[in-house]
Design brief:
Strand content: 25-35%
Number of helices: 6
Shape: elongated
Radius of gyration: 21 Å
């Protein structure tokens, strides 16, 4: 499969980096717009924490879900179900290099809408009763966030643009479970300019680091996602080692070479989204003999920019 064909297969492509043992190394890149998740201060951190909804395990403990993922409303007439985005997965951490040090990250693949290096966010709606005296949102307890696109839909993105829906004090949590029903109510909506990385994954999926899933609503059905927090709408470089192209136009990747990145959480300009470059080396190259972006730049290798953008949030060092 050629690289241009890979870009068309956005659904369920988290293995694109791992399958090909892609290794990346950073060349001297241009300045990247955006800011790290830590740059927005304590108020935004409180906002992220408040937006976290009930995880799958808690919902099951409360008896709102059967083992098959279905539930009945109080009147016993309407079935609530999980939106089907495939079989549950066990997301493993992938090893890479950052300036000579080992790093680990998740690979959620090429699901998002992109215009490289830009990542195009999709809307997510969170419900509030208004702002407190300090200007912090007062979130509606028990209301799960709502999205209107899921993996496989046109316009889906792992990156979500936060919309705050202001509802009255007597609003019943989870009485609205779709964007269509929300829009029919004409509630005031505010957009604070915050974007979050929350890739929708199959129900029952697990993450190696123990990150729990959060439940949301999609057209009346349940969806689940890990919440990696705030992220800018930009993809920054990841460099991938190859010795050339095969007869089908596919890169011949260097077996065993880990990806090399040049920014981690806390660095200025960091993003979970990575724009793939191919670093062309000869057959004599020894895997993992290069472990930093600077080494690639010093080596003078040919670097080919691809149209591929992947969602690979780095797990910070303990």
């Amino acid at each position: 499969m050629r690289l241009d064909e890979l870009t068309e297969r956005r659904l369920d492509r988290r293995s694109v980096l791992r399958t090909f043992a892609i290794g990346g190394a950073g060349v001297a890149a241009a300045a990247i717009l955006g800011c790290s998740s830590d740059d927005d201060g304590e108020d935004d951190a409180m906002m992220e924490e408040s937006m976290t909804a009930t995880p799958t395990e808690e919902a099951m403990a409360e008896g709102s879900m059967t083992p098959t993922g279905t539930a009945m409303s109080d009147d016993g007439m309407m079935e609530v179900h999980d939106h089907d985005v495939g079989e549950a997965k066990d997301f493993k951490l992938v090893h890479g290099w950052h300036r000579g040090d080992d790093v680990t990250y998740y690979d959620f693949g090429m699901n998002s809408t992109v215009n490289p290096p830009a990542v195009v966010p999709a809307p997510i709606w969170a419900f509030i009763h208004g702002m407190d005296a300090d200007g912090n949102p007062m979130f509606v307890e028990g209301q799960h966030n709502i999205v209107d696109v899921a993996p496989g839909d046109d316009g889906y993105s792992d990156l979500w643009l936060v919309n705050l829906v202001v509802v009255p004090e007597d609003y019943e949590p989870d009485s609205i479970t779709s964007a269509a029903d929300l829009q029919a109510m004409s509630y005031e909506t505010m957009q604070p300019g915050i974007m979050v990385n929350c890739p929708i994954v199959p129900a029952g999926s697990t993450l190696e680091s123990g990150v729990e899933l959060t439940q949301g609503w999609y057209k009346g059905a349940r969806v689940y996602y890990p919440d990696f927090g705030m992220n800018p709408a930009v993809a920054i470089p990841i460099w991938v080692f190859a010795t050339g192209m095969d007869a089908n136009g596919d890169p011949v990747f260097v077996d065993g070479q880990h990806n090399i990145i040049d920014a981690i959480p806390g660095d200025e300009g960091y993003s979970d989204f990575w724009h793939v470059r191919l670093v062309m080396v000869d057959e004599s190259y020894e895997a993992n003999s290069i472990t930093s972006a600077q080494a690639v730049a010093d080596g003078g290798f040919e670097v080919v920019q691809t149209p591929l953008v992947v969602n690979c949030p780095v797990v910070p060092r303990a």
